[in-house]
């Protein structure tokens, strides 16, 4: 990869204003596909609810007595009508509530995120907005901005703590996700076709003291369930 990576810079109205150099240590490494796969697999697994539950033969109701005597009737011997081979009986080796979370080292998560960002940067799909200068939350200027910068498809908008108006303007768009910079994660970066930063948030990603995803940021709340 080139030593100097440039991202196109725009105003909140969608006007092109130039280019911004990206940190090559964050946006210019060789993507490690194996690490990205392992981290995304762990992230999707951790989002599962793990609430599926079945009853064993000890938990189902009934079957307290032997259905018929052991010998003399010509029928197979049974001790309970709630054994697994009976209709309404217990389930053998069925699912029980459990956690699907996998331990993932922080260094691996950081490498996976840098790899995903570098892959998008190599595709020239990192866009920079100077700042969101909107007075009130409206969907129309958000759509106009994303269209102007070429982010009509799935877009991930990385906002700062003071960009609540931008977040509210984009929350009705089905193909747009907004995340604060501390919640940036590998899965969402790979999900999106275009990553949109502000000048402030792209600098925070490059700052090593701020670039430390936590366990609470690692799993998206809206990606729960047993879909993984």
The span between the termini is 33 Å
- Strand runs, count: 6
Regions with little confidence, pLDDT below 50 for 5+ residues: 208-228
What is the tally of helical segments? 8
Largest sheet: 6 strands, mixed
The chain-level structural class is alpha/beta
Number of domains: 2
CATH 2nd-level architecture of the largest domain: 3-Layer(aba) Sandwich
From the spread of the alpha carbons, the general shape counts as elongated
CATH superfamily of the largest domain: Ribosomal protein L4/L1
Helix content: 25-40%
Features:
6 strands; single chain; 8 helices; alpha/beta; six-stranded mixed β-sheet; Ribosomal Protein L4, Chain: A; 228 residues; 2 domains; 31% helix
Describe the structure.
By secondary structure, the chain is an alpha/beta fold. It has 2 domains: 5-50 and 103-223, 3-Layer(aba) Sandwich (Ribosomal Protein L4, Chain: A); 58-94, no CATH class. The chain has 8 helices and 6 strands. Helix 2 (33-46) packs across helix 3 (106-122). Mean pLDDT is 87; it is low at 208-228.
Task: Spell out the blueprint of helices and strands.
Elements: E1 5-10, E2 16-22, H1 24-27, H2 33-46, H3 106-122, E3 126-129, H4 139-148, E4 155-159, H5 164-170, E5 176-180, H6 186-191, E6 194-198, H7 199-206, H8 215-218
Parallel strand pairs: 1-3, 3-6, 4-5, 4-6
Antiparallel strand pairs: 1-2
Helix pairs in contact: 2-3, 4-5
